[in-house]
Amino acid sequence: MLKSNHSGFSLEAGTDEAGRGCLSGPVVAAAVILPKDFSHPFLNDSKQLSEKRRDELRPFIEENAIAFGVSFVWQEEVDKINVLQASITGMHRSIEILKIQPEFIIVDGNKFRNYKEIPHETIVKGDAKYLSIAAASVLAKTYRDEYMTKIHQEFPMYNWQKNKGYPTKEHRDAIREFGATDYHRKSFKLLPEQLKLAL
């Protein structure tokens, strides 16, 4: 059973990101402030949910949240600032676009930078503990998946509609055969044997 609040503040935002471990595409972050009485029978950490369940949850979260924000940190920026900084930057941007500023922020994971003067707490596996972080994880994942499915049309050989840019065997085989695209993160080790390749 996920908890609805951590801090005791009523305007508590949960934040999370998707796509950190991917070889291509953006890191997408989301922040959500939920009302005290929010509940949904499926809401859980987005990794535990089927794609169909996540897609059903997204409009429900958006309609019932007090506020939500979603931001994309594109692969060029990920390469520039590194993926951890990209995740935190994305979370900050998502909080920034909330129509109401939160009084407290709970963050999935164990790394965060202060956002303005707002107190925060990092919570390992927070998306499996708190409703607002779980809701943020669903938004981040569905927006990112939708984008990866869209760019799949441009480069179907990588099968991004299925692997969403994660380092599956099929994705790596396609990089081996066709090389990297502009959507790939150049700072990532795209292939295990990359160190031996004359790049």
UniProtKB/TrEMBL annotation:
Q: What PROSITE patterns does UniProt report for this protein, alphabetically? A: RNASE_H_2
Record's protein name? Ribonuclease HII
State a single Gene Ontology molecular function: manganese ion binding
Keywords for this protein: Cytoplasm, Endonuclease, Hydrolase, Manganese, Metal-binding, Nuclease
| Compartment(s) of residence | Cytoplasm
Q: What does this protein do?
A: Endonuclease that specifically degrades the RNA of RNA-DNA hybrids.
Q: How is the cofactor bound?
A: Manganese or magnesium. Binds 1 divalent metal ion per monomer in the absence of substrate. May bind a second metal ion after substrate binding.
Supply the EC number(s): 3.1.26.4
Q: Which species is listed as the source?
A: Polaribacter aquimarinus
| InterPro entries in UniProt | RNase_HII, RNase_HII/HIII, RNase_HII/HIII_dom, RNaseH-like_sf, RNaseH_sf
Primary localization: cytoplasm
* One cellular-component annotation, GO: ribonuclease H2 complex
* Keyword Isomerase annotated: no
Catalytic activity, per the record?
Endonucleolytic cleavage to 5'-phosphomonoester
The alphabetized list of GO BP terms reads: DNA replication, removal of RNA primer; mismatch repair
Lineage of producing organism: Bacteria, Pseudomonadati, Bacteroidota, Flavobacteriia, Flavobacteriales
Q: Family membership, please give it.
A: Belongs to the RNase HII family.
